[in-house]
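note to self: dont lose this again. the chain is below, predicted strucutre after it. 219 aa total, dont forget to put it in the shared folder this time
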Amino acid sequence: MLESQSDYFDVLKWAFREYGDDIVYACSFGAEGIVLIDLIAKVNKEAKIIFLDTGLHFPETYELIEKVKERYPALNITKVRPAMTVEEQAKEHGEELWKRDPNLCCHLRKVVPLQKALQGSKAWISGLRREQSPTRSHVQYVNKDEKFHKVKVCPLIHWTWEDIMTYLHVHQLPYNSLHDKGFPSIGCAPCTEPVSENEGLRAGRWAGRSKSECGLHQN
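---
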């Protein structure tokens, strides 16, 4: 299909032509997320945006969501929450499940909620970039998502971290202040740490563990 770096906008336009109201953007509100929101708003100002609200995000992330809502009032931004609150999960599985079994925690608080949120949709958009990690280095613009049985569209696969930050600054977009404090990748607060200059962009996620993905992008 579309192969050059400049095709990211064509990918988005194709996706909304192809799937219309049957496509949603699952956004973490990281730097890539804000870039995609700005681009999506130019294609469909009333697009569906979902945020997987695990109940464990940084205060800065929640603050950013409100700023984005103010800037793009027509976008349909929805917080999707797990079946259990953090407190209910602690009663069911023990305190701080993310320390003992992060895979189960991610499954309960991210994977299952996204499965439910995508019901009735044919496709979803993701901010995956090939530069982010080895597990993402082969992602395509348009992917067959075996986990959720949908089409997954990834317009930013060729963008670098520098491209992302340049776009944010040039267009004066709001972004998570943690990005300026050594957090290139931001997830749940208990499982996210800042990284040093010589570490990978996602090295701060589940630091010290073999885990590098939450499960949303693993078939």
